[in-house]
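Renewal narrative, Specific Aim 1. Our central claim is that a sequence can be written position by position from structural information alone. The example that follows is taken directly from our test logs and has not been curated for this report. It begins with the structure tokens describing the chain, in the order in which they were read.
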């Protein structure tokens, strides 16, 4: 259908023919369009030419409307469903609206402009644009894509064409701007030179971006690989550790069974021994009772002959030499072996207690108090993360990265007991963490003395700055020797002992211990430090576990 449409359109106005005329060369044009082309050549007497094939035509040429073509165009525009829309649509452009730009030289029959001459400040249709190409006087004019605002392409001060580019101000300028205007003595290039330089720069930038994109894709692949590896490693460790605990349980269960069997055997042995001795005693009692009965019967005999016969028969003529009844030795039933079993279990408990409770048994995850946070800090919705708000670089450059006032407190404070928490720092280049004490105001938060974390006598902290670790307290700084970069910092407050210890929470390696003697509440404090150009934008995150085991409740619950 597109091919048929083109046969019904004028090559000059690019619209459907109106009063089409055919030239001897075979090309068709609107009557007004071809007349406008020839009129712009200056003479009504010729020479005339075809705008399509450029051949010269006789000066006495008579133009007649091609009624056959006109009827075909009429039929096509009437029957075609989109003819009305296509009729008003110039080539490769959107549908013409009320903002359509018309040729400034076509007065009687307005034609759609396709170019704009900045020298003439005029919009040109295809015919008049062709004229600018062919006439030597107009050939030097600057013709650009059609625009409704030619002045936007000119200097607003001098109304001259923008032929130069000021390299200092980075704006297009005219020649007068460089000679006598605001850009005098500025370095300026011609537009094509500036374009060449900037295109070269953009190509370099594109190559850098392509390289950076490739690096980012490689980093993503590495992250995905690390993610898979992390999940697999966690599963492997979970399985191995579960297996080790299973074996420990098997050993403990076996040891418990052994001890219970020892107790059972000891009980059986002792009860059997007691039963045997009881049988012996009962037999002795029975024998005694029998002798007493015989003796009693003889004593009642009045016939002397029968008495002597019976006493002789029963061997009772001599006094009985009865062995004394052996007293029961209660020591024989002393549960010494049972005490030995209990002692062995106690020894096992003592051996295990050297490793229990774990420091992680005291693990907690204090919520951050958004009310205590510096205005340039942002707290996550779950109150487990703190990070530097996005700020203009000019504002962020003035403070030091470790300025302690950019901090946030935890909602919870400690006065007694043991408390342990961990903060994830990963590869964050700057951070400051510790605890602070101070008087509490009416709202329940510490007074403003906490804003000087690590630089007064009521705060203790660890500062990390690009690989260096400092222990800070009361304006004193001590550089720490840390072999491996800390990814999680663990903090243990043992208030019974008056100690505050910092650990590499992954390896459980002690970094530093402060002696803390205080009577006021102790508040955990986090400082993510400032972020410049996104280099320190990573948050500080409280590490937490689901359903932590209450060690004291589980170990003491059975005793209460």
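The sequence written for that structure reads:
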């Amino acid at each position: 259908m597109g091919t048929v449409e083109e046969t019904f359109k004028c090559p000059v106005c690019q619209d459907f023919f109106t009063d089409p005329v055919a030239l001897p060369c075979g090309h068709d044009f609107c009557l007004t369009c071809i007349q406008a082309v020839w009129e712009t050549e200056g003479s009504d007497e010729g020479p005339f030419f075809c705008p399509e094939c450029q051949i010269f035509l006789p000066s006495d040429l008579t133009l007649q409307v091609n009624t056959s073509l006109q009827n075909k165009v009429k039929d096509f525009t009437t029957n075609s469903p989109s003819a009305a829309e296509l009729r008003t649509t110039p080539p490769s452009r959107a549908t013409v609206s009320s903002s359509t730009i018309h040729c400034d030289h076509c007065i009687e029959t307005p034609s759609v402009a396709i170019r704009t001459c900045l020298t003439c400040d005029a919009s040109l249709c295809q015919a008049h644009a062709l004229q600018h190409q062919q006439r030597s006087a107009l050939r030097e004019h600057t013709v650009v894509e059609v625009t409704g605002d030619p002045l936007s392409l000119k200097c607003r001060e001098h109304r001259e064409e923008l032929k130069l580019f000021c390299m200092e101000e980075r704006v297009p300028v005219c020649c007068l701007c460089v000679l006598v205007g605001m850009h005098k003595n500025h370095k300026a290039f011609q537009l094509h030179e500036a374009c060449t330089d900037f295109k070269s720069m953009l190509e370099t930038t594109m190559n850098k971006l392509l390289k950076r994109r490739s690096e980012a894709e490689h980093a993503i692949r590495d992250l995905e690989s690390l993610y898979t590896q992390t999940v697999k490693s966690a599963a492997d460790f979970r399985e191995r550790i579960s297996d080790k605990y299973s074996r420990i349980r098997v050993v403990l269960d076996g040891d418990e069974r052994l001890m219970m069997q020892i107790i059972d055997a000891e009980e059986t042995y002792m009860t059997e021994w007691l039963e045997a001795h009881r049988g012996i005693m009962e037999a002795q009692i029975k024998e005694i009772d029998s002798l007493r009965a015989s003796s009693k019967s003889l004593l009642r005999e009045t016939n002397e002959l029968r008495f002597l016969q019976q006493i002789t028969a029963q061997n009772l003529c001599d006094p009985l030499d009865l062995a004394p009844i052996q007293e029961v030795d209660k020591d024989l039933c002393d549960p010494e072996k049972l005490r030995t079993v209990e002692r062995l279990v106690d020894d096992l408990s003592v051996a295990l207690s050297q490793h229990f409770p774990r420091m992680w048994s005291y693990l907690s995850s204090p919520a951050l108090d958004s009310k205590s946070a510096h205005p340039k800090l942002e707290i996550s919705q779950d109150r487990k993360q703190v990070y530097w708000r996005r700020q203009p670089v000019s504002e962020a450059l003035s403070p030091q990265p470790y300025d302690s006032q950019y901090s946030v407190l935890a909602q919870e404070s400690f006065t007694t007991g043991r408390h342990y928490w961990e903060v994830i720092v990963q590869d964050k280049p700057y951070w400051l963490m510790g605890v602070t004490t101070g008087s509490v105001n009416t709202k329940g938060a510490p007074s403003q003395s906490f804003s000087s974390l690590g630089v007064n006598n009521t705060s203790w902290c660890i500062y990390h700055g690009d690989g260096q670790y400092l222990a800070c307290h009361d304006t004193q700084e001590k550089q720490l020797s840390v072999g491996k970069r800390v990814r999680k910092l663990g903090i243990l407050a043992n208030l019974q002992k008056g100690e505050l210890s910092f650990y590499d929470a992954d390896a459980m390696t002690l970094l530093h211990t402060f002696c803390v003697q205080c009577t006021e509440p102790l508040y955990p404090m986090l400082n993510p430090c400032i972020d410049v150009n996104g280099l320190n934008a990573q948050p500080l995150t409280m590490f937490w576990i689901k359903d932590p085991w209450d060690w004291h409740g589980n170990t003491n619950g059975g005793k209460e």
